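Entry for flavin-adenine dinucleotide complex. Fields follow.
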Amino acid sequence: MAIDFQPDVMVCGAGCAGVVAALASARRGVKTLLIERAGFAGGIITTVGLPFFDGIARKSDRKIMQRGIALELLVRSGVCKASDELVYAHNPTIRSIERFKILLDEMMQSEPKLQVLFHSFVAGIETKGDRIDTVVVANKGGLQRFRPKTVVDCTGDGDVAAWSGAPFETWPEYMPMTLHFRIGNVEDNPQLRAKAKDVVVAAHKEGRLKNYYGPGMSFMFAKNELYFHAIRVNGDPLDPEDLTRCEMQGRRDAWTMYELWKEKVPGFENSHYVMSGPYIGIRESRRITGQHVLSENDIKEQRKFADAVATGTWYLDLHPNYATTGSANVKPGALGGMDGFQPDHYDIPYRSLLPKKVSNLLVAGRCHSATRLAQSSSRVNATAMFMGQAAGTAAAMAVEMRKNVQEVDGVKVRAALDQIHAGPFAG
Ligand SMILES: Cc1cc2nc3c(=O)[nH]c(=O)nc-3n(C[C@H](O)[C@H](O)[C@H](O)COP(=O)(O)OP(=O)(O)OC[C@H]3O[C@@H](n4cnc5c(N)ncnc54)[C@H](O)[C@@H]3O)c2cc1C
């Protein structure tokens, strides 16, 4: 069944950056279409089950770095008040992933200019000259063809940018993928964490787990229910066969850990496996090469940009690859530690959201233009949302001005964000 709606702005991917971009564009009164492969919005927060808003506040004093829709989400989730200048932690969490899905549904449904399509995969791009002419979407209605004026790529993987011919970078050994999972009815005790770790280390030595992290475990969502950051799978998220293997490996490893803990660790005897994923989390794939490539030097030197539209504040957080046992200087189970620089805060310029070669495309979130090390900081959830708000605003401005996004002045995007109190930190 063909869908009638023809958008002015089309946002691909309803994750951290995309859902915010679509709301920002629609709130300016521009006809906006949001496409998402899952049956819900929220991206990594809901597809992987990751409740953190890293990047919303700086570490030193927990001061909120940028407001706008990212902060609105925290306020509407009951985490803080709209008037707050500080949050309780620099990485505050929402309490319920399921409630968050519904909150996003409600916010999207309340925008008359916004059409959302779930269970829809952006599957192809047709270009004319330097423009995206048609975005092809695969869903239960068949292949849908949309001809937006401006496109915002928030797929995390830069699918739209790559398929449009925009230049991008990849890396031969990506950061590992991680499947998060939850185990219920666990009785806490002083030895629980150490014993759980011993079991994982032994399983790795015996060859039952090729790689792992930590395990990081916390009673995050409910009493007696543990949330785990423990899986590490090395692979290529852009290779469909390898991604399938990684999903299967992550699930298998999580279940192996659960079975071993239940058998060997006091406190897990009556536990049950609640859920995983539902998707494995991808930290790294394509990064577009945009008009400005945000670098670690920009971050370390707190370089100021007149066209700053987003503020970053997370540390340089590269997770080690461990593709081959004993490779490089990487140990399984360990943290990143490959630089770890903690900035106070830094500017992300509009030009880092602007790809080269394609005139009606913006990119926000994980796949924006940055070096690998810079992206290890700028990829975090709230920072991705800040970029999404800037990209959605700029896309709508381009439509209003009948211009390409390349012709929209980043200083004016910043001014538009400032006007609605969603601009970058000016300190
Ligand atoms: C395992 C893991 C742990 C992490 N831990 C933290 C943490 O603790 N705190 C933190 O702040 N950050 C963390 N990060 C980083 C952060 O979560 C991501 O970098 C962030 O989600 C980036 O936002 P995004 O909008 O670019 O991508 P996402 O939130 O992943 O959104 C991309 C969206 O696009 C959709 N999509 C993809 N391709 C298509 C397509 N072709 N068609 C239609 N839809 C598509 C996806 O389904 C998804 O909804 C972690 C990342 C991983 C992988």
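NOTE: The first helix runs from residue 16 to 27.
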